[in-house]
Amino acid sequence: MTASPWIRRPRVVPEARIRLFCVPPAGAGPSFYARWLAELAPSVEVCLVHLPGRESRYGEPPVDDLDVIAARVAEAAQPLLDRPYALFGHSMGALVAYEVAHRLPHEPERLFVAGATAPHRPSAEPAIAHLPDAEFLAQVRHGYDGIPDSVWTNQELLRLLLPMLRADFAACERYRWPVRTPLGCDIHACSGTGDHYVPKHGLAGWGDLTTGRCTVDVVGHGHFNLVSDRAAVLRLVREHLGPVAVLEGTRHD
């Protein structure tokens, strides 16, 4: 099987009972989910979506079209669908995961969407990708609480991150939900308390996009609840994946 740069498999598990494809939020790379590898059972193979313009793909230009991103991720995932799979996406990653689910030859067992309003509902997030650099970065810092202060004070790092951040925000802002037949898989939506861009009623809208079950949970705090309250989010993932995802004898704090 030829490896694709679009999906990293840090721990290949030939006997895996399910694969979990994890799509990072805007501005992040596959390492966003690195700690999940040791915190889900060995029977779950965690596959990390790796977009251009970040981490080991830094030298490649970032992509500012969400449909193109979803098409490339779906293409890379197809050889890995020889067993059940699920998709998890956070923020921008949730939109990508949803679009990937529609592009694959068979649906996932589960679709997890975190920190994202259902794509057919109006978003409360303002368009900022077009703003001048300083104003754009100020808006990102004001609206999202998960980027450490050490990043904002490092001007050289900000200069390196800026093209990727701007492309990711542009991809989300340009995306328009095409009217689609509902999925048949269960969708599990969550956000953190105090995430003013993703109100609970926005999460509930995901139920319109599947004929399966839709659960809505408020887990942890803030837009980046996957960072501040990782253990709580992972408990939710384990609960919905079932016994296959439980790692016996390991603390998850």
TrEMBL record:
GO molecular function: hydrolase activity
UniProt keywords, alphabetically: Hydrolase
SUPFAM superfamilies referenced in this protein's UniProt entry, alphabetically: alpha/beta-Hydrolases
GO BP terms in the entry: lipid biosynthetic process
Top-rank taxon: Bacteria
InterPro entries: AB_hydrolase_fold, TEII, TesA-like, Thioesterase
Keyword Hydrolase attached: yes
Thioesterase TesA-like domain location: 21-241
Family of this protein: Belongs to the thioesterase family.
Protein name: Surfactin synthase thioesterase subunit
Organism from which the protein derives: Micromonospora eburnea
Highest classification ranks of the organism: Bacteria, Bacillati, Actinomycetota, Actinomycetes, Micromonosporales
